[in-house]
Structures are given as C-alpha cells and as structure tokens.
Amino acid sequence: FGPLPNSRPASQQQLQIISGLTCVADWIASDEEFFPSQGLPDGTDVQQQAELALDQSGWVFPSIKQGMSFRDIFGFDEPNAIQSALLESVKEPGLYILEAPMGHGKTEAALYAAYQLVAAGHNSGFYFGLPTRLTSERIHERVNPFLHAVAEETSKARLIHGQAWLRAGGEEFRSGKAWFNPRKRALLLPFGVGTVDQALLSVLRVKHNFVRTFGLAGKVVILDEVHTYDVYTGTLLDELVKSLLAMGCSVIVLSATLTRERRAAFFLHNDMLPEDESYPLITIQGRAKKIQTIATAPPPSRRVDISMTTDNVAQIAQTAVERARQGQCVLWIANTVAASQAYYKAVKSEMVEDEFKVGLLHSCFPAFRREELESEWMSGLGKDGTRPKGCILVATQVVEQSVDIDADFLITVLAPTDMLLQRIGLLWRHDRKNRPCEKPEVLIVVGDVEGVQDRQMLKDALGDSGYIYAPYVLWRTFHVWSGRTDVLLPDEIRTLLETTYRDPEQDEPDFIREVRKKLEKDRADLRDIALGMTAESNPQMKDNEYVPTRYNTQREVQVLLVRDLQSTIAKADLTLADGQHVSVDENERDFDTTKKLHKNLVSVVSYLLSPMPKPPPYLRKHIYGDVAVLRIGEDGQLSDEGGTPMPLGYDNEKGIYKIEDEALRRVRFNDQEEEYYESDW
User: Fold this and answer.
1) Is 586 in contact with 593 (CB distance < 8 Å)?
2) Which of 13, 87, 211, 287 could make an SS bond with 246 (beta carbons 3.0 to 4.6 A apart)?
3) Same domain, 263 and 321
4) How many domains does the chain have?
C-alpha cells in the first residue's frame, strides 16, 4: 500500500483500511507466542522478531512467475475469442464485466486476467466469490492447479465459507497458519475462494468489518454468477463493488444472463453506459472512468427444441423413464425440495426396480450424504465421467451454477428466463460422439398460466414456484417462452432476457398490473433494508454480528440426525446418521468429533419443528447456535430426545421429507442454498 499518509483519511474506505491495519497489527503483537507478556529477552532484534511473527502467522505473499501464457497455465490451446477479448482489454485496475454463454471458459478468462493484473504489480492477490458453498468448493478445486502454475512458491487458495473448516482436515488448525482460521481474518491471505457473503461482510455493520476490508484492499475480486442474487443481496453487491473500486481493487464480474439494467447498476455513472446490445459482451471502466463496451465473436450457434406441458407428474415421469430406457441421461429440475421428492417418487413408481440409475439431489440432505451424491452424479455426468447408459437425476437449483453436468434431455419447471437459460446450459454441455438422441430438447413444465384471470388463479397456476420466484416475473417468462418451438443459443439470449425484464406493456391485465406494483414495492423495500444494513449508512450505530447477507422470512434451524443416543445433561454417546459413533462432553472440544457431527447436520425451516427441541448442553463445544437432535426411527420418522415424534422423516435416498404424502407438495422447502439466508422469491 506504500507509506502511510500524513493527512487524515480522505474517504470511508481509507478509514476502514487504516482501522483494519491497526487491528491486525495489534492482534499479531498481542500473540504471546511471539511477544510474551513479560517482554522479549535482552538483545532480541525486534525487527527480526516481527518478521518471524509475520512469517509464522502465514503472512507470506508468494512471488508470481512472469510471462506465463494461457497454455502454460491451463494446458489448453490458445484462448477462445471470448477469453482473448477479455485478456486483451485488462491493462489496469478497474471494473470488467464479462457476459458470455454457459460453459465457454469465463472462469479461466477471469483467472488469467487476475494473473495479468497481479504479475504486473497492479494488484496483490485475488478473492473469487460465488453464490453458494457448493459452487465455491467446485471452483476451489480448479483454482489450486492454477496457483501451482503461476506462483514461484507452493501456494494454495484458502476456501472461505461458513463450513470451509470441515474440509481443512484439521492441519490448518494446528499449524502456524492457524492465526488465519477465523473467517474474518481468512480474507487477509493473498488468495481465496469462497462465498460472496464473506466479501459482503466488509460493507455490512458487523464487528471487525474493517478487517475484511483491509484483507480485500488492493486485490482482484472475481464475482461469478451475479444474476442469481435477489434485490437485497444484489444491493449489497453494488455497495461492495463501489467500495472495492474506491480501494484500488480490480473487480471482474461474470455472468451468462445479465440484463442491461443489472449491468448498469454496477456503475456509479451508468448514464454513460453505451447502448450496446451485443452478446457476448465485455463492459469496462478503468481509471479514466469512461465506460466502454467490446463485442466479441459468439461461439457457434446451436438450436434447442422447446416444448411445454402441464404439471401432470405421472405423465412427465413416464416421459422421463421412456427417455432413460433409450439410453439418455435425463435431468429433471424442480423449484422446491418437496416437488423434487414427489417427482423422484413418481419416477420410481414408473420404472422397473434397478432398471437404470436414478437419483435425487437437493439441499435437505445431511452433509455426508450430500457430498456422496454430488460426487457420484458430478463425476458420472461431467465432462470426463463414466457416463451411465440411461439415467434420471431429479434435482433442484443446486445444479444451476458452476456445476459440470451434461444432460441428454432436460425437464424443468418454469423459472425466470435467466434461470431457464442457466438450466438449458446443462443440456448437451460437451461435445460427445454417439449421443443416444438426435438433438437437444427441453420440456418446460407449467400450470395453466395462459387462462388466468385474477391473482388467485395466477397463484394456483404457479403453485409452489410462485413462493420461490416473483409471480410477475414468472408470468412474463411464460409469455416470452409460450408458443416457442425452439431457441437459438447464444444468439437469442439477450433478446429473451430483455423481453422478459423490459418495461411493462401498456395492455397488461389489471390484476397483473397489481402484481407488478407489489413486486416493485417489495423490491424498493428490500433495497432500503439492505442499505440500512451497511456500515456506511450509519457509522455510529452499534455493530450487529447477525446482520444477514441474504434475506429470508423463514428462520432455519440446524438438525443433528442420529440413529441412537444415550445422554445425560453434560455427556452423550451418539450413533450418527452415517453410522459413526462419537462421545461428546460439554466441557471438551475435539476437532475430529466436531467434524463428524457437522457431517450429519441438515438445515430445516423452524416451523416444521413443533415443539422446537432445546439445544442440548453436550453439544456446546461443537455446534454453535440453535440445534435440534432428532433420532431416526426404524420407519424413518424423526423424534426428539424425549421420543416426541416430528412430522418429518429421513432416508438416504430422499433426504428430509414430510411424513404426510398428500401434504408433501404443499410444503415449501426452499433450495436457494446459501451462506446465511435463503431467498423465498
């Protein structure tokens, strides 16, 4: 950062950086391992001791190799046209927005751009922020080989999210780098990959937010899948970008489905944004503050057949099974966990037992089972996986972002246009020989939206999807896609997006106009709530450690699933859902035991637990916050420690489910799997 200035901080960002620097220096100087309370021995070289403290704390910024080519780093042939256009445009710190189709190397383009900026001395490291823990873990696996190629010393990117410590294996908790383990300090490391929430906390009114600000200052911050955020988180994201640019950071924004309005929101003076509707598109604002756009050559077009059908689960399951019998890999995406479980049940009823591979993937599995399912299906349906001869994977939104799944046939419930395009991006994702079908096809499932005449009819037609996504946006999406027999990608991406989200038509029905006005009011309210949570909005207000990065009206509770337990108030012997045995004590902390417990946790909306079980004292050293211990009965039904039955069940195939089958589809398990709160739009 150079020498400290003599004048007072000229901006909120400068004040935050100086506060963070002072706090970090104080933390290190207060570590008695390096600076004992009785003082250093006589003759100690204080400068040398300070350098030792920094080194052993992990405060080491590796040297970056110079002159590395795209091929040197990734082993690919030359970058494609989209990648080349971005790399040629990145010459100084600034804001870079890359809009390009799914599966065309945006991640590699952003990483190489970050390499260029760091190697040239413009920036000091990078943070790669993603929407969910799953997506951050997938990208983390790709970033470490990149760092191995570009760094002179052995370097790894730190995985940073609420559960990242579970993947650390414990060694980072016992080594010299343990100083960086608290999440608020983890951003101080030169390279990180994690959820965007960890970066958003730098602009929120939370304790030590300035430490996160200090950790991000001067870095390249890559923000991927930015179209996925609702108005609340999107508003915080805009504030984050503004703060980062004021600190000399470079910000690289990636998306396949960004509207012009959303793109403009990232710029302070968006009236200067050129009228450019090209796709793919790069939008740049460097130090000169001028906004410019660069249109790039699109990849070859491909035509995807589109058809719509009513929400007849049995009939759709029959279609899916017929396709799987032809050897096709079918992906069926639902908008809620409960709906996905109903679809899975319908498929199992339609097929002959063990006829072909079938599975279910959503967020209401405990961590150990979720990891098993992800590994099984991502490896089987990924680029280089051993592809099954016919299969059906029923899933929710957890497969939408930064996940390498390649389906032969896609079934999806109606979702907003940007989400539909993301889902279609999972269809024929890779070039393959001898596919068991002649062309890519999508079946969109929707209720009778065409015939609705009032708000109640619209609500009924949309079903549970109307609680997950804005009904007005779904109505607009339906009319944009209705009647289509195909879509040309990527040629029509921009048109589909702008037609869905453009200003409303004058001839909208009165009841739709009311739905739109409610949406506009809700969005305005969310913007106000989000801005009120920022540190800059009211610097004098007391910090709140529980300011959310996501907005949700439904409170969630952690549930620990066990098959057997013997407990007193202070101690317990548990057989966990995955079969492992652990002993816990309210006065003892053990990393391996804690890790085993967290592998058997699952989040459940609180209204499903009535009465709410009290957190047992014996878990205090292992699980923070509200937690309910539920026992899995022989019939799968869950009950609390006292034997009180819950209206929930669990098995390894379906995850957590409602006991009453007839109520299953009415229960809205959200599945926008996020760091703090889920979106119920």
Assistant:
1) no
2) 13
3) no
4) 3
